[in-house]
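Ticket reopened. Same input as before:
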Amino acid sequence: MSGLLGLAWRLLRGGGRRGLLGSGLTVAAVAVSTGLLLFTVTANLAFQGRADRGAWRNPVAATGGAVAIEAVHLDYVNERPITVVDVAALEPGAPAPPGLDRFPAPGEVWLSPALAELAAGLPADRLADRFPGKGGGSIGGSIGDKGLVHPEELVVVRGQDPGSPVMAARSAVGVDDIAPTRIADFTGRRTDDAIGYQILALIASVLMVVPLLVFGGAAARLTVARRDQRLAALRLVGATPGQVVAMTVAEAVITAFGGAVLGAALYFLATPLLTGIEIQGGPWFVSDMWPGGLAVLAVLAAVPLLVGLSAVVGLRRVVVSPLGVAKRETPPAMRFVRVVALLAILAVVPTLGAGVGVGVVATVLGLAFLAVNLAGPWVVGMLGRIVAGTARKPAGLLAGRRMIDDPRAAWRTVSGVAMTGFVAGFIGLLTPGGGLFDHGDSSALRLSVPPAEVAEVTAQARERLSAAGVRAEVTVRGRAEGAGPSPRGRDAAPTVLVVSPRGHDVASVDRARTALDGLVPGRSATTAADDDRSGFRVLGDIGTGTVVVLAVSFLVAIASAGITAASSILDRRQTYALLRLAGTPLKVLDAARRAETLIPLTVMGGGAIAIGMFCALPFALSAMNVSGAITLLVCVVLGFAGVIGAGAASTPLLRSVTANPAPRPD
Amino acid sequence: MPSFPNQAVGRSAGTPRRERVFAMSVVLEGFGLVKRFGPTVALGGVGLALRAGEALAIMGPSGSGKSTLLHCLAGIMKPDAGEVRLLGERIDAMGERERSRLRRTRFGFVFQFGQLLPELPAEENVALPLMLGDVSRGDAVRRAREWFGPLGLGGMEGRRPGELSGGQAQRVAIARALVTRPAVIFADEPTGALDQATGHDTMGLLVDATKRNGASLVVVTHDPQVARWCDRVVEVRDGQILPGSQGAEPSPVPAGRPLSGETTGVLPEVAG
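Engineering reply: fixed in the latest deploy. New output:
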């Protein structure tokens, strides 16, 4: 075995310049795949990490003895949300909240680093005046990373006395508010939002991983395709099938391992860029982008293994018969079963709906994706027959015949972009339009007030505002008036104090917020726009996610198109060289190559977009809207430009393999 | 004897070799051809004339420069010095595009192996050069099919190169080389990948088909058996033609001589 490994290694190294170029292409393909695979794995782990780090702010009521009380509400500054966590210890031994080194004493305030920085940067009457406990408290410290969802998150933890009105049992009023809850520890539970993000990340992963696997497999077979001749020769001189398989797989695995290591290195070099992707209102911790040693090792082991497996599949033909490669025969036609599989899965799609579990949806989506990939070569073969039958020019004839001859190869070139079309079609329908919701009013602050205290609170509010120098109109809305835009808590306070600062600008609103801080215990004044903010953030994040998924898909698609284009030239270099020698213009060969790619791209790209849209129908929020259409259009343009560009990039290679027509020395 | 589609009218089949060819005019000529690859001199000032309808073998051991000579004569390579003339017209000074067009229209090529596009059926492989010359696909395929019977390929029209034997594939290549009615066929070790008997048959067909179609033939080979089929043999050693071989005799045609009626009359008119 070690002798075989040694021979495989020598064959790899002794492959000559073109052999090296081929191995280089494989290394590049595997590197891109590995890097993106690591990104996908990490993204899921990172969202899980965020969900876990944020869970302590979503308290679970203690069933036995409680040690503390926790309440959460949102305050705002500069149109950004601040998570305000009030905690009160019921027992001396209460555990410290995550990110804090001890339980805050009553009156103590702990700020997240981003909030502390913001407080220092803005005028005190806009933000800082809200914190250094007006009741004589002090800054206890800074909240560590363990307690923060992301580094830019604005969080304040306030120590309270268990008897303080802030901790008094009451119902939640704000959209994102959590009423005081008696807790046994700070484990908490992942928020619905966080779980939603994890699900979206999972769907995005499926959309990214399937083309990655297809691409990686293509890269593996690419190595084998070029070694066909040599392996057949080895078979002819008497190597056993086992030895041939072992050597090829060893060669593929060695190459793939090199690519995997390179890909991992590239991934880690790219992490500073990746941490900058803002989702959920902020970028990522550097540690979020480290998937863990075990995951890295798993990917580094799995990628070469998968490549080796793919190589075995590609080798089957050579091993069966030593002449299988030397003699080139008409390949058997693709079975129609491939299309049936796709149709069967598409038939299932309409039965899906909002009520179906996310696992089922992800599975069906993944299967539909794979089925498109399965049906692709069949359709390419059909197209080839049509093109070859109707071609009038040599380029068209060549392209058509080539598509019939090896529909899988033609499909590999365009599969990436077609898969991206699927993603774009799917997401295109799911992208909510900007016009679907109106931004709420951002200038009028509203504060729910217990009916009994309205008069007193109103007077205090006027007093505080004038003391702070904020000129504002203060009105009281009753139950009937407040029904529309009022906070949507189940037992929403019936009376709402509406404060409209004269300035209407962000700074005036912030100063009014600061002035009103603590007026009603455990509540902050919010605008209608504030209450919509988290909803808009989710929509914005879906947009960001779409861009990331599409960017990854395009990277894969264009890399795949470029690599297959180059390898197809390497595979046919002798015939190309002899044809050119006999006077065939290079541009005919180029035109054939282009047609061979563009015809399937047009048909399959369009088909995949349609299938993607069809799969999204059960979940569609609305009909195709402008932004979805623009996303799709950009995809189509980028896809075509990318594939044409990748193909054009290999024209110099075509020129070079055909330029030296005298490969023989004499 | 089979009848070839392009067969020149008025020429009797089975003409004894080495008789009439010397009376004919020169089709292709090289003067003082020099080609270097780095420090290696592949051709050291070679002169050679090919007459209409003549079959010429260029022999020599590996590394002697015989393939380089063929590449220079066929306009594939530009010589470092010297001239190549086709029917009196200089082709070595032409640009790559022009030489490409020339190779496609006036020359035909038969290589050792690997020249047929594996994706195309045999008849489309033969039709390809015609289609490149803007012949309609229907006409091109129809004209290509005419070659299959005479070359012993009847019934193979729809087969792909992978489904043909080595000898059959070479005959398809011969058909493809001749289908455009070229003035000269260049064959580089055309039987190199075949067994002796098949090589013998293939060579016979190549010489016969070329002559019947009024074209000249240049064969590069290291095999004396192959060379025996030709009217004339020149031996190349170290980039020079051996003095004893027949290629060294002085050219009877002065350089720059305009095309004569006699020369063009030998070439069949290209139909379509």
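Chain A has a mean pLDDT of 79. Residues 472 and 502 of chain A are 5 Å apart (CA to CA). Please confirm and we'll close it.
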